[in-house]
Amino acid sequence: MVSIRGIYSPSRWTIVLIVLHLGSCIQFQQLDLPGNGNSECALVINGPGRSSHFDYTLNLLRGGGNTDFNGHQTCITYDAVNAAYLDARKRIRVSQPHGDWSPSDVGSVGEVLLDISMNLARTYGLSYEDIEKGLPLIDTSKTLIREICPPFLANVECVAGKYRRFDGLCTNLEHPTWGATNTPFTRLMGPLYSDGMHSPRISGSGRALPPSRVVSRTMHPDEGFHDHAGTVMIIAWGQFIDHDFTLQGTPLDPFSKNDPEECCGRPAHLKHPYCNEIIIPEDDYFYRLWGVKCIDFVRTFPSVRPGCRLGSKVPFNTLTGVLDANTVYGVKETFARKLRSGVGGLLRMNPAFEQYGLKDLLPLKLDYPDEGCTRPNATMYCFEAGEIRVNEQLVLTVMHTLMAREHNRLARGLAEVNPHWDDETLFQEARRINIGIVQHITYNEFLPILLGKDVMEKFGLLLQKDGYWNGYDSSVNPGVIDAFAAAAYRFGHSLLPTAVERWSKAHKFIASKRLSDLIRRPHDLYRAGILDEYVMGLMNQVAQAMDDSITQEVTNHLFKKPGARFGMDLVSFNMQRGREFGLPGYMEFRKFCGLPWTDNFDGLFGAMPNETVRKYSSIFEHPGDVDLWSGGVSERPLPGSMLGPTFACIIATQFSYSRRGDRFWYELPNQPSSFTPPQLQEIRKARLARIICDNTDLIDTIQLYPMVLPDHEINPRVPCRSGVIPSIDLTKWAERPHEQFRFQHGYCFVYRNYNAIDFRHIVIFYVKLLRLLIVLFNARAVIQSFKIKDIFLRLFIKRARHSYRSIHYLRNHPDSHQYHSYTYLYKKAIQCKPQVIEEVGTNIFQTNSLLSFIEVQPQIFPVDFKYALSTVCDNILKRMDC
Ligand code: HEM
Fold first, then answer.
1. Atom of ligand 1 nearest to the CA of 553
2. Which of 278, 363, 655, 688 falls between 20 and 30 A from 98, CA-CA?
């Protein structure tokens, strides 16, 4: 047995990774030869297939000697690649969809490529470096592999446009797949798989690592320390942004579409091949009470590298690596269409509280109602949004709702300043602004709290106050880093509270609910007014401290089934995930970040509390074995930051790549997507506080920075209407600024009258709306959930009342802008198609009769001018578009 000290000597332990960083002295020659049906070399490696630095552990792939060694070099021929391909195809079923590629479709191709790579590695006895740096050089377009290579990874042609694609392709024109969906996670350093190819990491000694649950229960108990300043809003925004960046591709249960697949309860031969269950030790303080010995867990799919290149397993990201508000819009054009209403650039919403005059909720999730949702009964539904995990916990659903409302608010505002814009333009422009808002809030409010000013400065993350930022770098890949997704950005799991609080608009505590009762159960939001109370709670409740203590709500009760006494363990997931991703240990990342490497546990004193170091030494053989997530959350935070140096470095690196590598970044000049300088200055006014003020119903006072507790001096509460929290002025988007004012009011008034006066039209309008709802949803659900008759009646009365008020106003203000725009509208209508003229004419005629009606009963409807102006006139705009 080799001594542990010898094995872990820095040179030996780290050399594998250094080789990958610096480029090795080993020379690979890629030969550019046609490869079909010939024995030309696809790859030449120096020397025979041989042992390498990787032999510190069992190299299970190492096979017998190879036949293509000529005494100096080994030649891997195209024929050999083809033979391995044909062999893989005999065992693996590959999907070749015509439309969108799902993660499992991509995974099936990934499996073939991994199988081929393993076959070659075994046949030629490839070393770690050969696998990591040699295999990806083979041009597989010259092999049979090309017949299964997904088109979006084989050859994409980009045209620079104003709006980014949903799937993130063409964010970089030279490397179209960078940052796109279903592409591999990027790596800061080479992977550490126990077999060099895909098996989860083991200890540097070659023995097993402590089971994930042992690390979880030993290192991450629930101590319940609180942060001193951060609110639960950091968690909410943090997770919302996480879901903008990363969702690993894993097999899903085919029926419920809930992950993970069932593994524990099945006999070996019926288990999904990706099962990698979390084993619970017999003596577990919690799970032993319920006889739990195993938790379901599935591994990630192997990815397809761009160009279908070979190599060891790399998991892939089903989202885009850039911040593009895919949480609101999705990552597929087809899905985005489904989320849209098709009118006025608006997203589909659920007018659940229309009768109370409250804002809409997200639409119901009707297609796979159990996907990521625990339903109390079959008539209760979760919500639908751009990202599938919208229902993961109620607080997250709240953030999705706010940002979807913000989109619609922007679309309505843009429609007022640009009445001639069609649905598509309004949607894309509102989306472009909304993305800018998400980017700005993340870098302006969230990251400074998370990372602190020094780290922001060091990694070039500080935003510019004015002018353009010229920092786009086409050599930067904005793809998500594996260590970010599988460990560092999971820092948020440390902040989770045990209970989520609701507060009143007067900033008084109302009640709280256990976090585990809100996970996959956002149904509270169907109670009118409660969304605002949760938002108030987010801004007033202090978050847990960022440390190694994690609430039992997620270490023992995650995804607890109704009535059950236990759930799953998120911390074990984090460890198990890092290992199956092939993430090197915490120590390697310390080194990557310029922090000192240590060969013994004593070297960790200072970096983390003494007790933590002691506990590590009790379960791990060597500091080099410590898992990245565990080590990262245990570090002492940097001054002014919530994070320790290793997580700060990985997260800051990711955010730097995501900004510098995003051709659509909101601060950039000279791109088809660039904002004008005045527009950019408006986006810079975006504040989370303003989003909350504008998109909730009752909240009227708020602290300037909702992710930090209110403070009289540094973070005072101010009224939403005070003007201290700036608003984005959408007139900077007006294409015809001079016409806009008259237009806007004229349209609004005619629209209202139209709906109110012509009863026949109202009936037709509502019948159409009902039909649409029934097509979109299931009729029973619509009727049961919204008491539809009631809503329609109230809607009708409301519309009528508004119209009367408007007319009354017009009547009494013959010199007003509105009166003139009314005439203007008529003139404008004459230029339109005959049926449009007729419609507008009818309105005007009937408006006049209403005016006479109002004349006799003026006192009934007081003027509410402001309210009248706030309505958007989508339908009339559509008809007037001539
Ligand atoms: C109640 C709140 C939360 C719950 C229930 C939750 C649950 C989960 C679960 C089940 C996973 C998948 C684990 C795996 O299979 O590997 C996950 C992944 C993740 N979580 Fe959380 N999480 C929560 C909050 C947060 C927060 C606040 C953050 C960050 C600020 C965060 C960041 C992440 C990241 C980055 C991943 C990896 C995503 C991927 O690539 O698939 N989570 N979380």
1. 1
2. 363
Distance CA 500, CA 830 (A): 58
Spatial contact of 142 and 78, defined as CB atoms under 8 Å apart? yes
Answer yes or no: is the C-beta of 111 below 6 A from any ligand 1 atom: no
What span, in angstroms and rounded, lies between the C-alpha atoms of 473 and 272?
A: 42
Tokens of 518: 């809100």
Give the 3-state DSSP-derived string for 73-93, with helices as H, strands as E and coil as C: EEEEEHHHHHHHHHHHHHHCC
Residue from 53, 175, 198, 243 carrying the catalytic annotation: 243
- Please indicate whether residue 490, judged by its CB atom, sits closer than 6 Å to ligand 1: yes
Cα–Cα distance for residue pair 633/287, rounded to 1 Å: 24
Q: CA 137: distance to chain centroid?
A: 32
Q: Would the CB of 296 count as within 6 Å of ligand 1?
A: no
Strand partners, 298: 275
Distance 354 CA to ligand 1 centre (A): 34
The closest-lying atom of ligand 1 relative to the alpha carbon of residue 577 is 16
687 CB near ligand 1 (under 6 Å):
no
- Of 484, 493, 555, the residue with max ligand 1 atoms within 8 A of its CB, to mutate for a pocket test, comes to 493
Question: 389-407: string of b/e by CB count within 10 Å (b at 16+)?
Answer: bbbbbbbbbbbbbbbbbbb
The structure tokens listed for 191 are: 């992977």
Question: Could you list the mean pLDDT of each consecutive 10-residue stretch along the chain, which spans 882 residues?
Answer: 36 40 42 55 77 41 50 86 97 90 95 98 93 96 95 86 95 96 97 96 96 97 80 97 97 69 86 94 96 95 96 98 98 95 95 92 92 90 96 97 98 94 96 98 97 96 96 98 98 95 96 95 96 97 89 93 92 98 98 95 95 97 97 96 97 98 97 97 98 96 96 92 93 72 38 40 68 72 60 62 57 51 43 40 37 32 30 38 41
> Does 243 qualify as catalytic in the annotation?
yes
- Report d(CA 318, CA 311) in Å as an integer: 20
CA of 493 to the centre of ligand 1 (A): 7
**C-alpha radius of gyration, the chain, whole number:** 30
Which ligand 1 atom is at minimum distance from the Cα of 248?
Answer: 41
Pocket test for ligand 1, best of 231, 242, 398, 555 (most atoms within 8 A of CB): 242
Burial 817-844 (b: 16+ CB within 10 A, else e): ebbebbebbbebbeebeeebeebbeebb
Residue 543 Cβ < 6 Å to ligand 1: no
Residue 404 and residue 695: Cα distance in Å, rounded? 9
Cα separation, 162 vs 600, whole angstroms = 54
| 493 labeled part of a ligand binding site | yes
C-alpha 82/C-alpha 882 separation (Å) is: 60
Pocket test for ligand 1, best of 235, 239, 331, 647 (most atoms within 8 A of CB): 239
Q: Give the atom of ligand 1 at the shortest distance from the alpha carbon of 392.
A: 5
Three-state helix/strand/coil letters over 336-382:
HHHHECCCCCCECCECCCHHHCCCCECCECCCCCCCCCCCCCCCCCC
Our measurement of the distance from residue 289's CA atom to the centroid of its chain's CA atoms, rounded to an integer in Å, reads 36
Domains and CATH numbers, the chain: 4-184 (no CATH), 212-303+492-507+547-646 (no CATH), 332-489+647-732 (1.10.640.10), 739-880 (no CATH)
Q: Is the CB of 247 under 6 A from ligand 1?
A: yes
Judge contact between 35 and 143, C-beta under 8 A. Answer: yes
- Cβ proximity of 706 and 538 under 8 Å: yes
| DSSP 8-state symbol, 285 | T
Alpha-carbon distance of 668 to 681, in angstroms, equals 12
Residues composing the chain = 882
**What is the H or E stretch that residue 502 is in?**
strand 499-503
Contact 573 CB / ligand 1 (< 6 Å) = yes
pTM to 2 decimal places = 0.81
